[in-house]
Amino acid sequence: MAGSRRRRLALLVGLAALLTAVVLVAEASASSRPNANEAVQAYLDEVRPGVQQSASQGADFADVRAQALTLGPNGITRRLQRLMGEVRTTLVSIETLSPPASLRVAQAYLVAALGVRLKAVTEALPAMEAALTKDPSSSDGGVESAVAQLYTMSQDLGLGDRAFDLFLGALPQGASMPANQPWIADQSQWSTVELTAFVDRLRSSASATPVHDVAVLAFQTDPGMVSVEPDGTEIIPASSSTSVSMVLENVGNQPEDNFTVYVYFTPDGAKSPTRFLRDFPSLAPGETRAITLRPLPTEPGMTGRLDVTVLPLPGETDLTNNTLTVRVTFK
């Protein structure tokens, strides 16, 4: 009997200890959940000012690009140097944070975004200097080199925007964080065609002497191209009402009134164009305009060269951007 009582007592003590352990574990688990949530919220509160600063810095960078013609070389340099310091300060403030384990990946994305943006702003200084400075040792005055530097910088900014998107996507659902404000809001403004015109405008605006220069930026037909041959020949459906749309820009610093723009079609083997369209537009300095000329009747089997060209302006010295040419076959 005494042994049975002792066994029952030991069993009751064991059950009591087990229940106590279960209660303690449950209480610890319950208390750890609020602590984890608090750590996440604390990190979000710490990181939010840096996110807001980066959005503001992106707007400042876009303003430098938009106001470059009026800022001039000194103004561009001052703005970019100040921006570079601000972006570096924001990066340091973020990379020193210690996120909770659940947000380490998000933190890595954000640091990457800010690091790439700092790299791009740092690249912008020499790129803008190249855009503003004519290189006498280059046949095009260094335009192609400047455009390549600006394009590389824009690719880096696009990478920064993508990394920031990944940061937002790695945050907990419902997290309060400012939406992404891309530093490259309009990718078309950073194409090599647009950047070439931008460099031309910058140089013209910095010149104290009159600069006459109209550029053909792009053109396309309607009906449009359906395929491209290995040699670059564009295949276009024939039509009795083919139209040609083009984008022209005055990249000089003088107004150009009633200048002549032609669309030529020259068949293979012909010495001169057999069909053409023309117009007499006017453009203010820095103005861009899209115009459409029609009709340019085409027939199946026509193969040759299609040119859009602006005739040389009085006093124009740079004719490298006056003409765009493409080989075509109409079918």
Structural account:
It is a single chain. This protein has helices at residues 2-66, 68-95, 104-132, 143-169, 192-206, and strands spanning 214-222, 227-228, 234-236, 243-250, 261-267, 275-279, 288-293, 303-310, 323-330. With 331 residues, it is α+β, with helices and mostly antiparallel strands. The strands form 2 sheets. Strands 2-3-9-8-5-6 form a 6-stranded mixed β-sheet, with no helix packed on it. Strand 2 and strand 3 (234-236) form a beta hairpin. Mean pLDDT is 88; it is low at 11-34.
The main sheet orders its strands as: 2-3-9-8-5-6
Order of helices and strands: HHHHHEEEEEEEEE
Helix content: 40-55%
Task: Please give the domain count.
Answer: 2
Summarize the structure.
The protein is of the alpha+beta class. It contains five helices and nine strands.
Give me some keywords for this one.
three-stranded antiparallel sheet; alpha+beta; 331 residues; elongated; 5 helices; 2 domains
What secondary-structure arrangement, pairings included, does this model have?
Elements: H1 2-66, H2 68-95, H3 104-132, H4 143-169, H5 192-206, E1 214-222, E2 227-228, E3 234-236, E4 243-250, E5 261-267, E6 275-279, E7 288-293, E8 303-310, E9 323-330
Helix pairs in contact: 1-2, 2-3, 2-5, 3-4, 4-5
